[in-house]
Every structure is written in structure tokens, then in C-alpha cells.
Design a protein that fits this description.
This protein is of the alpha/beta class. The chain has ten helices and 21 strands. It has two domains: 329 residues, Rossmann fold (3-Layer(aba) Sandwich), CATH 3.40.50; 102 residues, ANL, C-terminal domain (GMP Synthetase, Chain A, domain 3). The chain has a nine-stranded mixed beta sheet with strand order 4-3-5-6-7-8-9-14-13. The chain has a four-stranded antiparallel beta sheet with strand order 10-11-12-15. Strands 20-19-18-21 form a four-stranded mixed beta sheet. Strand 3, helix 5 and strand 4 form a beta-alpha-beta unit. Bound molecules: 5'-O-[hydroxy(phenylacetyl)phosphoryl]adenosine.
């Protein structure tokens, strides 16, 4: 299979590190000279760009977090004048001000290159037709994947999210071979296809590239079976670039390679900020090495994962991150027990006759946290007597308690009663925050 420019991905560790150090030094010089925020924080920490002599010196630089970006809204973190900026994207900003990120022409080119490399790692070539159901707009998913697909030389169908029935017809007629989207929207696509009497086995997909939200191994198994393709996880974030930061390879589908010629990753303990060794789980931190408009130093992503430096069957030497289990700010604390929505998803998906559509509702009653798990079940089950449904609810609730240590009320609901997403799913409704 022809592979798109893999040369940087198979370098020996010492060569990767040499590139990283050179690029880090340039980035630090640029931001110290051009971004008031970094000049102030570096000065406060007593560090000058010339102090960065080895990669270990990165640890001397302060962390950056989302609040810093908000405080500098909209353009305060840009390292180039606006005349050099050719694009802006923004996070959805459901809490507080959105985060605005900018790109120069060079950044757009780097991004396209990294997305092309991502597609290639997932097994795509210029012969492929890519059905891109990531949303187009301020969200980086749609346009990021689009430019990468074109750079690879593949044909891209820019469908975005929504108009789901039409998407199915397009899949039948245009014969795309690669499907891109958030796992929750793709699940919805599968559901609508079924309603329309369309079997994915009769379509032409070989791979699905799914990401932008956490999804479990059980969800992967479900999607692969339903859609008859290989489901590959892609991770990224707008603050660091968008998609094209990290992707699984088709060979192993186990851990997402991080493009280390463009980014340095660290895992820290979110409480003590101590750097954790490979294998230990903590918060993922990114430093960009080649970005011009919006370089970022030691950005605390809030994503929880661990790193795996083991060699990979694909030959890439770039480190892998394990599938993120969620974000520190999505972690629910229910009566003192910490639980991620993805852990609940894992338990739910072990149960037969349950559909992978669920929502978690958190409330506080009489000063106590309550968790209700609404989950859809197979239509046929609704004809069963109430008693058997109650037994099923009890069994799932017991499983959740046993595996995760959290008490939850399970409510089985009819198919299609939980709202479907066109982008990222809303898994948690936390009424305590109202
Ligand atoms: O979600 C960029 C993207 C687009 C990635 C398309 C992959 C595909 P943001 O909207 O800024 O950017 O959201 C970034 O989404 O910090 C994670 O919490 C979460 N996330 C993204 N990909 C994954 C993934 C895009 N594969 C935030 N697994 C990140 C788990 C993910 N979480």
C-alpha cells in the first residue's frame, strides 16, 4: 500500500529528540518576543529563551491552561500580526468564552500535511473517496479533515453533520470508502440507514476514522460490526491544531500515535503537577513545535490518558497515547465516588439488548448526589412485561455498583427517545450546576 510521507514517523529516538529540541528553541524564542502572556509568565519563572538547552528544560516552563486562553480572548495569544493570519477557528464555548485559535498559511499547510499523514496511518490513499461527516465551521473537525484528504489526493465528499437520510443516499450513490465523523453521529447514521433498509455491508467502506469525543472499545466493536469496517480512533484539539495531532494506525488500532516531530507530550498528575512516567495515567499536556500563529506551551488538555513507548507493528517510532478515558472536567463525583461517562458506557455495552444510546442525569436531592442512567433498549423488549424490565434495570444498576462503586438508578427508555447528536454527544446533564 503506498504510504504518504512516513519518513518522520520512523526516525530513531535520538533523531526525533534532536528535531524537537531545535523546534522547541525556535518556538520559545518566537513567543517570548511576540506574545505578552508568555513573556510575563517566563519572566516570572525566571526563564529566558536561551535557557532552553535540552528537552528536559521544557519542564522549567510554566503550564498554560484554558483560563489563560480565555483571559487573552480573542487574539491575545497570537504570535503573528493579523495580516499573517488566514483562518480562525473556535471551541464551542458552552462554558464561558470560546477559545479562539489562529492559523497562518504555513500552519494551514502543516495541518493539511499532518491530516494527510493521519489518513495514511489509517490506511487511506489517493484512491479513496472520503465521506467527511465531521462538522464544517468553527469546529476544526470538518475543514481539518477536508484539507488533509485533498493533500493526500483522495476525493473528499464534504457532507458535514446533519441531513442524515441524504447522507445515506450519498453513501449508496457516491460509493465512499472512508467514513469520518464523531462516533455518536456515526452511530446515528447507522440507525437511520437501518430504518431506510440500507445495510452497510452493501456499501463500500473499508475504514472509519472516528473521534472528537471519548468512545470505548465496546463502542468500537459495536461500530465495526454494524458498519462492516475497521474503526480507527483520531484525537486532536483546537488549541493544539485540531484533528491531525494523533491517530491510531491501521496495523494495531491500539493507542494513538502522536506526531512527535510537531508536538511534545507529557503526562502529569493533575493535582501535584508532577510529571508521570510512561504507563501511568494522568492529564495530557501538549507543547507545539511548529505552529506560527498560535504556538502553545505545556497546554493542560484536561484529557486523561497514559503513554505507551513500546514499538509498534506499523514501524512508527512515535509514542502512542492510550484511548483517553475522558476529561477531568467530565468526571462525575457522585457521593464522593469518581466516575467517567466512558466507564459507564463500558458496563452498559456489556449488556445485551441495550442500544448504545444513553444519557447520564445528575441531581442533588436532600444534599445527596443522585445519578440516573437513561438507556435505550431494543424495541422488542418493550412488549415484555414491566417486571422483566425492572429486573433488567436492577441487574444493570448492580453491575454499575459492582464495577464502578457508584450507586445509580437505571431507567430503560424506548428506542429513539434520547436526543441524537450531529457532532459531539451530550452524555451528561448535570442539574447540580443549574
Ligand atoms: O475535537 C478536534 C477533532 C476533530 C479531533 C475531529 C478528532 C476528530 P475540540 O472541539 O477542541 O477539537 O475538542 C477537543 O475533544 O480535548 C478531548 O477532550 C476530546 N477529544 C477529541 N478527540 C478525542 C478522542 C476536536 N479521539 C477535545 N477521544 C479534546 C477522546 C477526544 N476524546
Amino acid at each position: 500500500m503506498p504510504v504518504y510521507n512516513k519518513s518522520f514517523e520512523t526516525l530513531a529516538r535520538k533523531d526525533i529528540e534532536a528535531i524537537q529540541l531545535k523546534r522547541l528553541q525556535t518556538t520559545v524564542e518566537q513567543i517570548y518576543a511576540n506574545v505578552a502572556f508568555y513573556k510575563t509568565t517566563f519572566d516570572t519563572a525566571g526563564i529566558k529563551p536561551q535557557n532552553i538547552k535540552s528537552l528536559d528544560d521544557l519542564q522549567r516552563l510554566p503550564f498554560t491552561n484554558k483560563q489563560d486562553l480565555r483571559d487573552n480572548y480573542p487574539y491575545g495569544m497570537f504570535a503573528v500580526p493579523m495580516e499573517k493570519v488566514v483562518r480562525v477557528h473556535a471551541s464551542s464555548g458552552t462554558t464561558g468564552k470560546p477559545t479562539v485559535v489562529g492559523y497562518t498559511k504555513g500552519d494551514i499547510n502543516t495541518w493539511a500535511e499532518l491530516m494527510a499523514r493521519s489518513f495514511s496511518a489509517a490506511g487511506a490513499t489517493s484512491k479513496d473517496i472520503i465521506h467527511n461527516a465531521f462538522g464544517y465551521g468553527l469546529f476544526t473537525g470538518g475543514i481539518g479533515a477536508h484539507y488533509g484528504a485533498e493533500k493526500l489526493g483522495a476525493a473528499v465528499i464534504p457532507v458535514s453533520g446533519g441531513n442524515t437520510k441524504r447522507q445515506i443516499t450519498i453513501m449508496q450513490d457516491f460509493k465512499p470508502t472512508i467514513l469520518c465523523g464523531t462516533p455518536s453521529y456515526i452511530l446515528h447514521l447507522a440507525e437511520v440507514a437501518e430504518e431506510m433498509g440500507v445495510d452497510f455491508k452493501d456499501l463500500h467502506f473499508k475504514s472509519g476514522i472516528f473521534g472528537a469525543e471519548p468512545w470505548t472499545e465496546n463502542m468500537r466493536a459495536e461500530l465495526e460490526a454494524k458498519l462492516d469496517l475497521k474503526a480507527i480512533d483520531i484525537y486532536g484539539l483546537s488549541e493544539v491544531m485540531g484533528p491531525g495531532v494523533s491517530i491510531e494506525c491501521r496495523e494495531e488500532q491500539r493507542g494513538l500515535h502522536i506526531f512527535e516531530d510537531h508536538f511534545i507530550v507529557e503526562i502529569i498528575d493533575p493535582e501535584t503537577l508532577e510529571i508521570l512516567p510512561p504507563g501511568e495515567t494522568g492529564e495530557l499536556v501538549f507543547t507545539s513545535l511548529t505552529k506560527e500563529a498560535f504556538p502553545i506551551i505545556r497546554y493542560r488538555t484536561k484529557d486523561i490518558t497514559s503513554l505507551n513507548p513500546e514499538p509498534c507493528a506499523c514501524g512508527r517510532t512515535h509514542i502512542r497515547m492510550n484511548k483517553p478515558s475522558g476529561r477531568t472536567d467530565d468526571m462525575l463525583i457522585i457521593r464522593g465516588v469518581n466516575v467517567f461517562p466512558s466507564q459507564i458506557e463500558s458496563v452498559l455495552m456489556e449488556t445485551k439488548q441495550i442500544l448504545p444510546h444513553y444519557q447520564l442525569v445528575v441531581d442533588r436531592k436532600n444534599n445527596l448526589d443522585t445519578l440516573t442512567i437513561k438507556v435505550e433498549i431494543d424495541e422488542k423488549l418493550f412488549s415484555d412485561e414491566i417486571k422483566s424490565l425492572q429486573t433488567m434495570e436492577k441487574t444493570i444498576s448492580n453491575d454499575i455498583k459492582e464495577y464502578l462503586g457508584v450507586s445509580a438508578k437505571v431507567r430503560l427508555v424506548e428506542p429513539k427517545t434520547i436526543q441524537r447528536s450531529q457532532g459531539k454527544a451530550v452524555r451528561v446533564i448535570d442539574n447540580r450546576k443549574l
